[in-house]
Design goal:
- With about 270 residues, this protein is of the alpha/beta class.
- It has one domain (about 1-270): Purple Acid Phosphatase, chain A, domain 2 (4-Layer Sandwich).
- Helices cover about 20% and strands about 25% of the residues.
- The chain contains four helices and 14 strands.
- The strands form three sheets. Strands 1-14-2-3-4-5 form a six-stranded mixed β-sheet. It has a six-stranded mixed β-sheet with strand order 6-7-8-9-13-12, with no helix packed on it.
- The chain is globular, with a radius of gyration of 19 Å.
Amino acid sequence: MILLVLGVVASVVVAGMAYGWFEAGWLRRRVLEVEVPGLPDSLDGIRIGHLSDFHLGARFSRGNGASARAVDWVTARRPDLVCVTGDLVSDPRGEPRLRDLLSRLDRPFVVLGNHDIAVTRDPFSRAAELRDLEDSRLLQDEAETVEVRGERVSVVGVDPQTYRTRHARPHQLADAGAAFRLLLCHFPGIVDTLPAGSFGLVLAGHLHAGQIGLPRPGGRITLAHPRARFVAGLYETDTVVMHVSPGTGTTFVPFRLFARPEVTELVLRRRSG
């Protein structure tokens, strides 16, 4: 009887691992409309491709392929802006693939994450030299103003080192005269530091939608970050609207469970009233 029970348990564990490995490559392609307070009429309907957490170079991870397919999808849709919110690689061996993927995109705005500088508990992660990403606009506590539909759009990026030391002041970098201000930070917690009205939208990543989750009535439990407030999707805080990407890669283990990888296109809409 004991052997039978152990056999059943072992079968369930193996089946769960097999499914988790499959899900890690089961990319979701999603288009979301986002109501943004104060968005000018001229920018109503602009599209932003949001990618995050490639973790390229992670061994045995189907996230490497999911990340490539996500980039192909964004490239085909040609949004007005493309943004990548950190954790680009998990090992230097992923750098050549990263540079190839970024070259397919139209000069994306990019920020780094903690894995890119090897600040992580993952024993398999190693930093890569990513300071010269020539096919992208890497923002390290920097801002760049671009023109979209004839309007000035200010894009600000937070460096992970400054975030960790709590010295990040992205609102001081934004173009005050821009029609729209967009903030990129790998960490969703940045919203707790922002003055109200300093940005129209924040893009973040980091948590992989929990990566490993268990279903429960009314939702699911994320085992890696059970107390996190911002795990994945759209959030409206007291200060700003934020989108947290589930990302496309994996870390620690090459599995996802009830946390599919995702690439997202955000369609911004002016909020009436």
